[in-house]
Amino acid sequence: MEFGYHDIAKMIDHSLLKPTLTTAELEAGCQLALAYDVASVCIMPFYLKRCAELLEGSTVKASTTIGFPHGGHTTYVKQAEAERAIAEGCEELDMVVNLSQVLSGEWQYVADEIEAITNIAHQAGQKIKVIFENCYLEAEHKIELCRICGGLGVDWVKTSTGYGTGGATLCDLKLMRAQSPENVQVKAAGGVRTLDQLLEVRAIGVSRVGASATREILDTCRERLKLPPLNSR
Question: Looking at 49, 61, 129, 187, which residue is catalytic?
Fold first, then answer.
């Protein structure tokens, strides 16, 4: 095998963003993420503080969303969300761009907003992923967003929220990797549900994947690597 268990586990942001998840399910999701030692838990903002408490002392990061899922919040509200999230222990912010402004070609607005949230994250020593929601965009929009994000030094460009009309595609991931500078990583979200799909996007240069099928992906990984199964709650 050309990969080890942690090479794969540390690609996964375990997604706990479905709005109907109960408190018990959110708690269990955090415990699963700890047991499998994934990269992060991306959780609904209201439960972030508790998530950060559960993950404290581990190598699993607490992350949450900004302007989720439609991106139409004012910049002021997104800034407030980012500041609150960092105060509650967030280490990675997943922010949705303003889709209306992207589609309108209002690039200065888009750039100013991304810069504002990036500055908040980086000044606190934390990281930012910028969500494009590619299913609504044309290639020229995606290319310009990559250019803006590259110039601003964001940490990741990300395909999707997982709640639009489509998720990550190989075509989009190749475009985003090709159009982004080397220091900007690429995250795939929406539709990566198996180990083989994860390995396929990894080969393109994707470094992080948003997934709710974490257990299934990593159980398969351990099986292929002939590692004992994990007992996770």
Answer: 187
What pLDDT does 225 receive?
97
Looking at 78, 127, 158, 172, which residue is catalytic? 158
CATH C-level class of 5-224? alpha beta
DSSP 8-state assignment for residue 134: G
- Report yes or no: 208 and 190 within 8 Å, Cβ to Cβ: no
94 among known catalytic residues: yes
Residue extents of the structural domains in the chain: 5-224
- The active-site residue out of 94, 129, 142, 172 is 94
Q: Are 11 and 203 in contact (CB under 8 A)?
A: no
Mean pLDDT of 25-33: 98
187 is catalytic: yes
Name the token pair of 53: 């408490």
So what's the pLDDT on residue 55?
Answer: 98
Strand segments, DSSP code E, in the chain are 12-16, 40-43, 61-66, 92-96, 127-131, 156-158, 185-189, 208-211
Residue 233 in this model has a pLDDT that exceeds 90: no
pTM: 0.96
Instruction: Give pLDDT tens digits for 168-226.
Output: 999 999 999 999 999 999 999 999 999 999 999 999 999 999 999 999 999 999 999 99
